């Protein structure tokens, strides 16, 4: 997991804003620091997204929530 995401969760930044803007695949990949190929792979594995016409968009709060849950799940497995 990227250090930026871990810091985001430590700082309690998991409250979604009231007026949340949708992010494109390009914007989200840049924000998370991953490639478009990685983002597409994550979509196939269950990353939440919206399809409007032929374009794909993401709610940042939903993406961060699912990644936070995955991080907790992995943390629980590592401790055993």
How does this model look, in words?
This protein is an alpha+beta fold. It has a single domain, classed as Arc Repressor Mutant, subunit A, CATH 1.10.10. 56% of the residues lie in helices and 14% in strands. The protein contains four helices and three strands, in the order H-E-H-H-E-E-H. A three-stranded antiparallel sheet has the order 1-3-2. Strand 2 and strand 3 form a beta hairpin. Helix 2 packs across helix 3. The radius of gyration is 13 Å and the shape is globular. The model has no long low-confidence stretch (mean pLDDT 81).
Strand element count: 3
The succession of helices and strands, N to C, reads: HEHHEEH
Question: Please, what is the average pLDDT?
Answer: 81
Structure annotation, total helices: 4
> Structural class of the helix and strand makeup?
alpha+beta
Low-confidence region ranges: none
Main sheet record: 3 strands, antiparallel
Q: Could you tell me the radius of gyration in angstroms? A: 13 Å
**Whole-number tally of structural domains:** 1
CATH class identity: Mainly Alpha
Order of strands side by side in the largest beta sheet? 1-3-2
Just name the CATH architecture. Answer: Orthogonal Bundle
Question: What global shape is seen?
Answer: globular
Q: Remind me, CATH topology?
A: Arc Repressor Mutant, subunit A
What is the end-to-end distance?
A: 19 Å
State the share of residues found in helices, binned by percent.
Answer: 55-70%
Strand content: 5-15%
């Amino acid at each position: 997991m990227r250090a930026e995401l871990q810091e985001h969760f430590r700082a309690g930044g998991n409250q979604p804003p009231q007026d949340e803007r949708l992010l494109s695949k390009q914007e989200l990949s840049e924000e998370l620091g991953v490639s478009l190929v990685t983002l597409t792979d994550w979509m196939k594995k269950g990353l939440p997204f919206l399809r409007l016409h032929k374009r794909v968009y993401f709610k940042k709060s939903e993406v961060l929530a699912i990644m936070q849950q995955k991080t907790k799940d992995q943390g629980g497995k590592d401790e055993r």
